[in-house]
Amino acid sequence: MQMTLAEKILARASGKSFVKAGDIVFCKPDTAMIHDLLGPVIFADDFKELGGKIKHPERVVVIADHSAPPATVEQANMVKKTREWAWGNNVGEFYQFKGACHQLLVDGGHISPGNLVVGTDSHTCTAGALGAFGTDVGSTEMLGVLLTGEIWLRVPESILVNWVGEFSLGVMAKDAALKTIGKVGHGGATYMAVEFGGSLIRNLPLDERLVFTNMAVEMGAKTGLIKPDEKVGDFLDSIGKNDGEYFISDDNAAYREVLEFDATKLTPTLAAPHEVDNVYPVTDYEGQVLDQCYIGSCTGGRLTDFASAAKILKGRKVSKKVRCLIVPASEKVWREASKLGYLDILAEAGCVISAPACGACGGFTNGVLGDGERCISSSNRNFIGRMGSKKAEVFLASPMTVAASAIAGMITDPRNFL
Amino acid sequence: MKPISGKALKYGDNINTDIISPGAYMQLSIEKQAEHAMEGIDDDFTTKVKFLDIMVVGENFGSGSSRETAPLVLKANNIKAIVAKSFARIFYRNAINIGLPVVELDTSSIDEGDELVVDVLTGKVENLTKGEEYQGVGIPSHVLKIIEDGSLKAYLKNKARQ
Ligand code: SF4
Hints:
heterodimer, A: 418 residues, alpha/beta, Aconitase, domain 3, 2 domains, 14 helices, 31% helix, globular, B: 162 residues, Aconitase, domain 4, seven-stranded mixed beta sheet, 7 helices, 7 strands, binds iron/sulfur cluster
């Protein structure tokens, strides 16, 4: 029987040789990720009342990233409560102030191909770039996972999104991800898995692939997936933890829909306020005056992002009218970007480099927006109130577009600087 | 579980979790967060819920974040059930897990203020004001027990006791 990549992983996780879309299966997650916002601060009391024993503590990763470093006493208390719970329950790993959760799971070797990863965060689907099934759960549901080591899931149908061709100058994974979301719509893949394939994806480095799977949830998807290959293997070898199962979809696996996109035709793209599928060519909005330019988050704060931004900003200056914030997705990204000189170039240009964390992406710390302010960001959501004031506007674009816009102080096509 | 009676409070499509439960207030208690529920699109939400207690919404309700605070702040505002054309996946699971009944249904002909009777188990909704009846999709049978127990927490507690 033919299976998709999503079906194969859930078959493995539920101890079955075959599952099909629509089946309800009880699965054993390989990794359970909990962060400071939706973790122990919500369920610690109930956890205790229910016996207070984690079934598989070694599979649990706890991360303080949303309130980190804390900007208020309340946030500091959230981090403290999270930390005390993590240490008190001997979880597999606890990170504080080291970066955004999804990047830390990758950097720390907590995701292997073929794994089922559940997390208290909607972008847990990021894990799919390593051929793992990552999906989000609520805090209460996580409590169930901690206590029982199990979760029920409905096996999703899959949509195959094939990207072929090559990017032209000034175009990145973020542009293609936005284009895909614009086509599918923000509810178009609800309950489904979105598998990204095609020659473009195959040729992209791992950190650009992560942009696609990260944003799968912006189409409502349960997970995003990419066939794991030697690039995934090379990365896992480099961190000394290559122990996964490299499942791939069978040739005749049943997809609900197959979409084709040609990268060659793609130009720099953005999502205008206040929806991620509100997608246009950057040129449609050129000249819109900005207050803030933001390059960071688990979507747009990786090495390729800073390399690309540095290419644009090298020898140039950020406009005095705006502030340009750089927020590396993790401490490891920070170190590598520093070693390769990108951070120096960005600082020289007048960017402000902030701690690796969620930062202003979710409206928590470090650069939230005021009333009526307009921001262009390489993060993943532009909802009303997402980055601070409900009266602010957020445009989503690639790090290159954000960098170009920082120079001009207004939305600008990056090809002007290449 | 008895059918739920109440009055319709109507909103449109694609109401996301940043609107329902803005990130900026997530460090506050649920009661305090509840005061800011829906304020991104409706400053009068917390007044309206005093009279209108069944939310009737369009497509893709609750998209975005996995924050359980989204159904929690609605529950804290005394919303008794949500009837939507469709729900975002994680909101649907979260609502069930915290014990907020949800029904999927074509809501086009329901107007704000209509008196409704919602049967969560069968997915049937009666519109007393208009004298109409609609058939939607209730809670799937395998998770029924969670709603009947009140929440996933209560369900786990009952299970632990057995
Ligand atoms: S960086 Fe932004 S999208 Fe990523 S986990 Fe943090 S708040 Fe969420």
